Amino acid sequence: MEAGDLRREQRFVATELASDIIVKVGDVKFFLHKFPLLSKSSLMQKLVAAASEETIDEIEIPDIPGGPASFEICAKFCYGIVVTLNAYNVVAVRCAAEYLEMLETVEKGNLIYKIEVFLSTGIFRGWRDSIIVLQSTRSLLPCSDDLKLVSHCVDSIASKACMDISKVNWSYTYSRKRFTSDNGHTRQQLVPKDWWIEDLCELDLDLYSRVLSTIKAKERVPEKVIGEALRAYACRKLPGFGKGSVTERNNDMKSESIVEAIVELLPLEKGSVSCSFLLKLLGSARMLHCSENIKRDLVKKIGRQLDEAHLSDLLFPSNGDEEENAIYDVEVFLSIVKEFVMIEREDPGLVFDSTKIAVGKLVDGYLAEIAKDPYQSLTKFIELANMVSANARPVHDELYHAIDLYLKEHQELSKGEKKKLCRLMDCKKLSSEASAHAVQNESLPLRVVVQVLYFEQLRAALPATTCNGCSGATEIGSGSNGSLRSVITEENMDSVPTVEDIKSLKSMVLVNGGVKTGHRSSSSDSNKTTEDKGNGKVKAIAMPKKIFGKLLSNKGGSGSDTTGSPDLSKPEDSKSTPLRNGRHSVS
User: Fold this and answer.
1) Which residue intervals are annotated with compositional bias (Low complexity) in the record (predicted)?
2) Strands, DSSP E only, in 510-584?
């Protein structure tokens, strides 16, 4: 069939016989002969019969699938001309043949039959061809779906993805090289379990969802591979996703649909996708205003594996709905931590101590970040800090660091607010290094400084055998120094230390250091007598009493609100008192 004047879009058959029918498809006119068309197409028989009654020799077919190109292939088949079918045009021709009713009842070996044989013996046996054909079905819906071409393609692709990798021919893939060069030697690569994921990223969302759902339903592919496939698709279809957020040009309904579809396809198995990937999905869901159910599902999944998260992935920018002018959206992180805590309470056996400690460190690191925000509310800061259980914070150094940052950034805090903030910290869980820093920290209330000094004195007074090999915060039990706490009163604790007070407290830290060094002395100090060591302890304890007496000389001798111990002025009551079990309050 040859083209005539292209400007007039006309097609003729190269034959000596004059055409006796004109078929108009869209803007193209085909000058043909009735007999070849009527012998293969039931629809043409009906149309020609209707046109003959009206003495019209022109037939119009405006809505044939595939348009003029598909009709031309069907017409060539009617004339016995060899036609070329491939993965790119076979769906359109199949739909056109169905439209023209080129059935077996009209003639044996008709076009529909031949196309079905071509699909089953050729197209659906190939990996790449199956993907190309599936993509081409989108523009021919609903006809391609009605003819089950979509479902056949989906099943073909899913079956190949589920094959044993030992049976996979590497030629199935076309986005990875089959051979690699190693020091001049060419070797064939082993087929990885996820060999198919990059190729499926070419599919549009609706088709991709159908294929992946079918693969999941077959239950022959590990869920980690499913998770990796979803991650690859998100990175391909959402530019900027790999960097933690989608770009503004993707802030539309299409991107929202992609995120929601990926979340719905996520495997149920814990660890099948990384926590980082889940957090990036949550960030994208927030930016694209996805449904609350989608965001809630992500929060639950993240809470199950929060210990794997990286701090940088948790710093969601504020959307303005929560704290005005705040840099970060703390509410999102709070909801994730609450999910983790709920899992811990419902089934403690599922959460290991190492997991709790990892989450505790993550929360403290997050607190340190938001503490630098001048608009961060104290209420949210305290609420988040209190979410961590006591055994998840064996050492309070990082929490102290966060509190210190908050105090320095929010110098307008009242005494009461500072008291609430510092109550989060357990002074006896501070390491020696953190304690030394806290004593010299002018941002802390005197109450906290004295608390730190008290526990440092207890730590310094511990026997050498107790401290050998210690690192970080030393767990302090009951001892002979309980009377030291009796000078710590509610009224004095809220005082702000003077310059002289700070100098005295700093000098006491140096004394403490000397005592501890004495306890951890090398073999060259082994000639010191037991009496000398005992005197060292007495000096270590006596020094703070003297300093505290000086600091508090103008105050009453009421008992401490934290211990209930009597005043030091009553020698008979200055006995050792055991420390409170559990978390020590600085209130």
Assistant:
1) 549-568
2) none
d(CA 305, CA 275): 6
Angle CA 224–227–228, to nearest 5:
90
pLDDT single digits (tens) 360-409: 999 999 999 999 999 999 999 999 999 999 889 999 999 999 999 999 99
**Domain map of the chain by residue range?**
2-121, 222-300, 305-425, 444-520+529-587
- Each residue of 547-562: b (16+ CB within 10 Å) or e? bbeebbeeeeeebbeb
**Triad 197, 200, 203: Cα angle to 5°:** 155
Q: Which two tokens stand for residue 545?
A: 């009493």
Strand partners, 25: 28
Alpha-carbon gap, residue 202 to 462, rounded angstroms: 68
Pairing of strands 10-12, 28-32: parallel
Q: Are 72 and 11 in contact (CB under 8 A)?
A: yes
Which residues contact residue 26 at a Cβ distance below 8 angstroms, ignoring those fewer than 6 apart? 62, 67, 68
Amino acid, single-letter form, for residue 399 = L
Q: Is the pTM of this model over 0.85?
A: no
Residue type, 204: D
Instruction: DSSP letter for 559, please.
Output: P
Question: What are the φ and ψ backbone dihedral angles of 59, each rounded to 5 degrees?
Answer: -115, 140
Pairwise CA distance, residues 38 & 350, whole Å: 73
Helices (H), 204-252: 205-218, 223-237
Sign of CA dihedral 416, 417, 423, 427: negative
Angstrom distance (rounded) from CA 401 to CA 394 = 15
Length of the chain, in residues: 587
Q: How far apart are CA 404 and CA 387, in angstroms?
A: 19
Token pair of 459, please? 């730590």
Taking only the tens place, the pLDDT of each residue in 147-195 is: 999 999 999 999 999 998 888 776 555 555 555 566 666 666 678 888 9
- Partners of residue 30 on adjacent β-strands: 11, 23
Q: Partners of 179 in the beta sheet?
A: 188
